[in-house]
Amino acid sequence: MLIVDSMHAILEGLIHYHCRRVLQLDTKFMRSQKNPDIHPAFIHPWRPFDPKYNLHLEKKRHEISDRDLEDDQIAKIQETLQLPFESGEPRSMTKEKLHNKLNQYQLAPLQYVWFSLSLPTLLTIFGKDGEARVVKAQEKSHFIQLLIKWRNTKP
Q1: Are the CB atoms for 73 and 109 separated by under 8 Å?
Q2: Which long-range contacts (CB under 8 A, 24 or more apart) does 30-36 make?
Q3: pTM, whole model, 2 decimals?
Q4: DSSP E strand boundaries for 8-153
Q5: pLDDT, tens digit, for every residue of 74-97?
Q6: What is the mean pLDDT of residues 108-127?
Q7: Hey, which residues does 135 pair with through a beta bridge?
Q8: Distance CA 115, CA 137 (A)
Q9: How many CB atoms lie under 10 A from the CB of residue 124?
């Protein structure tokens, strides 16, 4: 696509997409943090949101809508997963804090981050009787558990 002038690039959202998704220039996240001096524990090469993602899904219930992207939930989830985790520092995230933070987001963005990391679909769940069973991830809590398990493998 050829852009005739810069006004068309702005109106079509190409500049916004490039700055927010490609260059990852996002000050909204840093302003929302209580402690802006907390730096990521690591930098992960995140896959930018793919609008064709919805085409690969078998069930429409996993589809990401414009509402899910309105608040940039995918970017916020990715940034949350990069924060210091159980490092012993006073401001690092605990497993409980990370679970509560991820639980604030909608299911579809959590699924997209899970998908972009190529994480397994199966997880082990322990019932009230203490018996372990393997289930396929379908619920929000399942995807949160898989993301926390992935985060445990990082520094």
Answers
A1: yes
A2: 35/91
A3: 0.66
A4: 122-126, 132-136
A5: 888 998 999 888 877 767 888 999
A6: 88
A7: 123
A8: 11
A9: 10
